[in-house]
Amino acid sequence: MYAASDFFLMPSRFEPCGLGQLIALRYESIPIVRETGGLKDTIKPYNEFNGEGNGFSFTNYNANDFLNTIRYAIHLYYQPTHWNRILKNVYKSKLNWDHSASLYEEVYERLLMQLNEEENYVHDHRPIKSVTQRETHLIIR
Fold it and tell me: Which pLDDT tens digit goes with each residue over 81-95?
């Protein structure tokens, strides 16, 4: 279904994460989603002026806005310059864990460095060993 379609419709009222839109991107089926939860985080609406975006979205949960977004997407489908740009953006979308993992690594490194800067005592006031930058890197990986 994903690979055979040009568009993937996901007008969710509530969607904490959503995998459907990610699978659709993987198969270059352009998502049309409602801006909620994980859908808003992963699908960036296409902007025909700057060429950015990997799908289409609408804000209000109603059939009229949904239909207008579908019509806009179909309009751009028949304009090769825009459609090819959207497909290129989808292809460049980061759909694996490499990007997320590096962001998590940065967060953990900052937390460990902050911990080292604070007092070196745990709640029972026993001194704890300071973690070096190299040890921090090894702990995270």
Answer: 999 999 999 998 877
Asked if 28 and 87 touch (Cβ cutoff 8 Å), the reply is: yes
**What's the gap between Cα 46 and its chain centre?**
14
Going by C-alpha positions, the residue among 85, 78, 16 that lies closest to residue 48 is: 85
pTM, entire model: 0.69
> What 8-state DSSP symbol labels residue 63?
H
- What's the CA gap between 108 and 131, in Å, rounded? 13
Handedness of CA 123, 116, 105, 19 (dihedral sign): positive
* Residue 93 to residue 22: CA distance in whole angstroms: 10
Domain ranges of the chain: 7-92, 97-140
Side-chain-side CA neighbours of 127 within 13 Å: the count stands at 2
Eight-class DSSP state of 57:
E
d(CA 19, CA 15): 10
Domain 7-92 has CATH 3.40.50.2000: yes
Query: Rounded to the nearest 5 degrees, what angle is found at the Cα of 65, between the Cα atoms of 63 and 69?
Result: 115
pLDDT of residue 111: 86
